[in-house]
Design a protein that fits this description.
Chain lengths: 344, 413
Amino acid sequence: MSRVFVHGIGAVSPAGWGIPTLREALKKGAPLPTQALTRPGWSKPFQVRTVPAPARRQVFLAHPRLRRASAITQYTVGASREALGEDVGRVQNGELRLGIVVCLMPGCVTYSRRFYEEVLSDPATASPLIFAETVYNAPASHLAAFLNSGTISYTLVGDDSSFLQGLALAAGWLLNDQADGCLVVGADEMDWVVADAVHLFERQSVQGAGAGALYLRKESSAKPALELACITDAFLFSTAGARSAAAQRMRAQLPECNPRELLCLGTQGIARADADELAAWTDWTGARLAPKQLLGEAFTASAAWQCIAACDALGRGDFNAVNVSIVGVNEQAIGARFVNPNFL
Amino acid sequence: MLFPSPRPSKAPPRIVITGAGIVTALGIGWRANANGFRAGRQAFRPVTLFDVSRQRAKIAAEVDLPQPFPPIQLSEKRLTRLDRATKMLLLAVQEAWSQAGLTPGENLPLVLGTTSGGMALAESYLRHAIHSPQSQRQQATRVMNYQAQRQALDVCDAFGFSGPITVISNACASGANAIGHAWELLRAGHAEQALTGGHDALCQITFAGFDSLQALSPTPCRPFDARRDGLSLGEGAAILVLETLDHARRRGVEILGEIISYAAATDTYHLTQPHPQGDAAFTTMKAACARADITPEQVDYINAHGTATLQNDSTEAAAINRWAGARVATLPVSSTKASIGHLLGAAGAVETLVCLMTLCEQWLPPEIALSETDPACGFPIVSQPTDARVNVALSNSFGFGGANATLIFRRWT
């Protein structure tokens, strides 16, 4: 048996906590409002899209490992709980072996910045509690602890495309019987230092934050079933000039345009940043969706939202298949395809 | 395609090591390191890379990078932008690449483990952003080059191959996880060769972080010593060329050893402390042995994680005692962190190379500074240079966040 299905999806985004808020934002199709983020040393703040506080205090944040955890961990656990649904209990009871893959780009940057500021001030008094949260795999660790899951867990670091690599890795664990289910999370958080860094390369980019999670299994109970059909090769680029060719090669591994299929792009609505990806998909005349244009640039979280939006559309029966295109910020181009097997 | 993977029609292939490269404070390359590890030489000295005057600990195992840097296929401009971590990584790749006789091409998976990538550049970026916010000179270069994926791309460009790239950051188990993942990629039929390992350079945020946790010893670390008082940090890189046995035989290259098993698990006890009984460590050792179909009686040497913190070593000792059973009393164990410190994301990869050295050259690396073995250790700690018959070696790696990994290697004869 070599089939892998999307068993659940979960999201924390600038639209709010949960898939319904994301779905509603995508349905409206209008960019979410921005908020001001202070930038030290500058009078003009950044305009960003932050994650709103949940309507009511999330009970899971009372878990001992989550009380002091950073925003990125809270987003990770929030999206994961939603994706797992009722299987949270099965994992916590040890009935289900759960593999965890958390994909990050800037990662735990808020606590890293805070800790380094303390070091610059006086390293002798820097807080050990903050340091522990700076480690890339802190969100994965907290998630595993919350779920009481001792199975394999990886944290992948890369650009936004690494989320699809995470899906491929998790699919491998399932097919090798290393886990009964796998959670793949893309998560990144908001900080002025990230917005400042992005601003160096693309001034029009609006920073977002949050997490998205896909829960994979070898069998499907969803109706209709959402099957992970393929993930393309990873096409590397180390220069801006090579990015276009990488996008073209990724596109060539996905099917030709079909009016019953959706294309879910990673474009931001910024001509220069989007040019390579749009050029690769000029032949696609069918339906398109670009969640990042509404939600902002949140790297691996954005990639996860693309997959979630694609699976949600597939689950509603709007399309027979969806193709996800990710032309990463600075590493590689990768695509994925999800299908409703009833239409194959 | 990354998925679905090509399913091998038969049993997974055997995976062998055909190239190895290493950079530590003991030196650059296999010979310098083998000589150092075999003698149990310690490579600690006062930290020179950043200010430690306000820290409790003031030593580390710093690498002396060659000056000038050896010729490499990157532009002068790009070379000047490389940080220490990338330079160590490139040196290790160069040695492994040359030994395995690799040539430029497509589809050579690169799987790296690191905890902080080029963090020194990120520190520089942040200092600049705080102290001179209006001046953005070189800030883009710092941002671009600190990222771990950029260092991996530097490797691809320098040696003329295209990934895929996977960077695993599972804290101090990253290097072992990377090697284990590369091993699994080849067994699953994704490729016939892979380049894998780990790298990490000393940086202020990590040094200050471990110091803030009071995990650093002011003196060279003494793993499994009854009077140990913390770890010492180091830096370095280690890279392996993995290959299916059939592919290596077709190429007619020298085989250095075989990876026969890998297992990983998560310890959910605490973010920075292991479970007191070492449950996850026990799980990975047991699972790795089961996967290789071997028993503790067949293991000739354990390269322990052995950081020299009170918690790690007692936990690991408990796990080894429990896993090894009757074999424990005669099973040689040592931690080579006694020589080069804790290399964090590179540790599992460097310690894999140490295991490979013991298999190839038939000796055990001693902990010369050990004065009184912790009574919790039911096993003998190698404390003097020792020649030994080593057919199977096991390496443990544990990390912050509960990442646990075990790799098992076999001598190639």
